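Objective 1b: paired records.
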Amino acid sequence: MRDLVLGIDASTTAIKAIAMRRDGTEVAQTRATYPLSSPAPGHFEQDAEHWWTALLDALSAITRIVAPSRFAGLSIAHQRESFTLIDAAGKPLIPAILWLDERARPQVARLSQELGRDAIREWSGKPPDPTPALYALAWLNEHRAHLLRSADAIVDVHAFLVHRLTGELVTSTASADPLGIFSPATGDWHTDLVKAAGLTEKQLPRLVAPGELCGTLTSEIARSTGLPEGLPIFAGAGDGQAAGLGMGVTESGKAYLSLGSGVVSGMFSNRYVTSDAYRTLTAPIPSSFMLETVLRSGMQLADWTVRTLNAGSAAELEVLAKTLAPGAEGMMVLPYWAGVMNPYWDETARGVIIGAALHHKPAHIFRATLEGIAFEQAIATAAMEESCGVRATGFMTAGGGTNCRLLLDIMATVLDRPLSVSPVNEAAALGGGMLAATGAGWFESATEAGLAMRVKATETIYPVAELGDFYKKKVAIFGDIYPATRELHRRLLSN
């Protein structure tokens, strides 16, 4: 009886394996962690072998909980942009360079000039930024050219793990896309970007669409994990796209909002459109795209505020902040503590607290921080909707920030639409499970799987209508802070 699928989330810190039923409910979950290293300022790396041993541990653990014969297939969601180089035997030649890595900022500037900033954005769907692997590959081509030339292949996390599971050098189009050398418009590797990265076509994995068969589990790996030999391994997606699927973002007008360390929003699009206001990614659903915005300083900024002020816990500050009038009595926070991606793509941007006065207390700063996060999201969402010509009817919301009711109330009111709170903590793994279920033939499409397996919201937060006009005026003021301080920050960092 094959009544379960396995959804894997290979995140930046751990492998999570979740066994789930046809309705999306979780039967069992296992987890194995791995370290991250920073050998030099701005360098972030991992040993890809740690990804593999963690996957083996998680899979072995889950077969001790659930009968292996029940599994109909497996699919992987994973940290995006991270990659390594492998030899013909599949052995890593370098430590994996992660999406967090910033060593390639000079290559971002060089390729933007050589290829054209707008051309890169149109070809890849992503404005130039150190996050995609394109620039780290260009760095390798300048500093470790012999390794790049000798590599049998470049592999993202999905390709590396699938190769180990099946022996097939293959990856999903929704996994290759974030590398920055892929064309979402054509669904294939982009010749000019591949060349700019210093690669050849022979070094690229074969591409398949999400939910399609990548290969089957080898006898060797079956023996070491307890899974059945020949278990189908279906193409997955990057964790952001998979999380969108897991939260039911499967058609036009649907959007999600992940309130984690960073704030990530995604909106479904039937058309390929690009803009500095967002990144365009291949969706797990055929001929579709995910428009994504990212605020790097999300709940980690709220946590930083609590620690720095040393004025009690986040819960205690939230209680005090709720007693304050909206607007934090004239204080406003620009939440660029970690620079800014969309729409400015400026790593020199920094945070600003403006309007501070002697009567302000820690609760004012805390409330102003939450409002600043919401104001930033409002501007990002408006730009995204204007570009694609579709308004999101509401947001499915998940992440640690959903535990802060004040943030949810502010966000719903500032965005002027309801927030449906998802009970799913592992939306990326759920999205992977949906793709496995699609590949196994349980559903005709990922759209159908997304509808059938999604978990219903536990609560819906509605806008406070009487505060709508007030916050619109505040958003307009907020939008002027970055342009007014941009050059000041550049001057500060250059001296």
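Objective 1b, second protein:
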Amino acid sequence: MINRVVLVGRLTRDPEMRYTQSGIAVTRFTLACDRPFSGQDGKREADFIDCVVWRKQAENVSKYLSKGSMAGVDGRLQISSYEGQDGQKRYRAEVVADSVRFLSSKGDGGRDNAPPLKDDKAPPTRNGFAQDPFKGSGEIDLSDDDLPF
């Protein structure tokens, strides 16, 4: 049997971390995941999916993610039941995360983690060089001794 869930979305509120009586960290959070279609009114809709993560990853989620952060979750769907205050049996669906990826935060506008600009004239490239080391005349002086094969 296969029970695998993969989600990408933004946290709807700050994660809530607690510890079990035996000292194991558990963090709960909710992801807002956009649906791939628009509703009848033309607006995009989202699903709000409860997630739970355990142990060291729970501590990391609580420490590094906050409301609005984008995260990727890989886990399994779990349905649990409990008795409500009115005596009725209630069901809860949640994703038990095997891994959580920190994709971006709301404040960074979806940018990658490029180094900050040191001057306005020459922004660094992705590899951190002030200029592209491969940009030039197009000619490369190589001899057969320079090749590894």
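The two ends are 48 Å apart (CA to CA). The chain has one helix and six strands.
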